Fold each of these.
Amino acid sequence: MKNLVVYYSLSGNTEVVAQEIAKLIEGDLKRIECIKEPGFVWAALSAILGIKGKIKPLDFSVEEYDNVFVGGPVWAAKSCTPINTFLDKTDFKNKNVYIFLTQSDEKTPSTVFDSMKSRIQSDGGNIVDCFFVQTQMKSVISVDTIKRPITDWIDKFKVNLFN
């Protein structure tokens, strides 16, 4: 099976998580990039309003993969705008999808998971599981801090990633 980890990261936290996931699942790692990175206030406001961010053209196709891990930060209790754009542009038909999020709040981002799941499922994707990592807004999380929780998450379904 072919695995993909696609993510957006503004502060670097989601990138650290995405890199660790890609390593554990032996997956390709692809970053979603904005044409112009938003400032903090605009990021929060655009997330609240459900605006789609302008992203650079993608140099990959989800079509080539069996399992797709989609990750991004939570902004103002919503999915970030670059992820909104990616979800809108991507066909997840017959893909096993795993969602991972980073946020500074310790509360599980259930509404963000539900929103993302709904959009992916309406496009034919099969949601396998969701995971989030609590981070700090002013510092990038260390791999040592997240290694165990991510490994435990991946171990739940790892057998399905390599058959």
Amino acid sequence: MDLRELLSIPYLLEAEAVETEPGQWRVRLAYPELPGCTAQAAVVEDALQELERRRIELIVKLVEEGKQPPVPRKPLAASDPLWTAQDLGLSDRVAAHLGSGADPITRN
């Protein structure tokens, strides 16, 4: 599987509201199938954006280290990981891996 396919895998999303202080609530989101991939914010959209950033960075890091990210289901055909990475303001390194015709990081 190449990086584009790995970044198109749909992961289960867990969401919960947590009270951090009396009367102060935050949204906690996680992809439990990806170790340590969690985010927390006062606004759900901010938490989701941070969670997506962490998901992409974690998958790229695992692949660069020669490790296979969890693949619990098939990649989504309609996914556009390049758009998502650019929208999140991720590093040029990540966008470069996805933007080239042939992904320099591949896994079989």
